[in-house]
Design brief:
- Residues 186-206 have a biased composition (Basic and acidic residues).
- Keywords: Transferase.
- This is GCN5 family acetyltransferase.
- It holds the Pfam family Acetyltransf_1.
- By secondary structure, the chain is an alpha+beta fold.
- It has one domain (3-184): Aminopeptidase (3-Layer(aba) Sandwich).
- 29% of the residues lie in helices and 25% in strands.
- Helix 1 crosses helix 2.
- The longest helix is centred in the middle third of the chain and has 13 residues, at 99-111.
Amino acid sequence: MALAIRDVREHDLDAVLALNNAAGRTILALDAAQLRYFYEHADYFRVAEIDGHLAGFLIALREGRDYDSPNYLWFAEHYPQFAYIDRIVIANAYRRHGLGRIFYCDVTSFAEVRVPLLTCEVFLEPRDDVVVLFHGTYGFQEVGQQRMGTEGPQVSLLAKDLPSYAFVRETYLDHDGLPDVPWLAERQRPVHPDTPQRRLAGERRP
């Protein structure tokens, strides 16, 4: 089995959209325009490809994005710098095989050289103890709760400290910036001025 974690490409978007909208009630549905927003603006948008098949994806955004997710906005109001995991989706055929942990290791490597916190939320209604346990064992702590809208589900807002960031900031970011090596590079995001700037939020399942 050949596994690759790579930045999303435009030709992946139809498959990503189908995978997202088949994921069930813990993942908010997307339309093509909403997915295009992520393609053009997400700081982290990577897919897992196994033997040529799309097996999953993870989308994360840093602070300062024009994004109206109530959970993203909660973190923006409470923390000056963070990376927010908007959603992770794993195809049914590849669940419970550790792919979620691989994604979280990868997004942590992305985040810890840029921000001090990695954030996300999990549903408490309905509560999924597998998801709660996954995040707890990966170092996330609850920093708040809120309801998504007047009739939406209650969510637990989670944050994970990234202790490597202090060293990176003092050694590199406060001076000449990160070294120019491929694994530290930002993803190349195509930006089109006619793309809507605000989109709805999504949830996650490892």
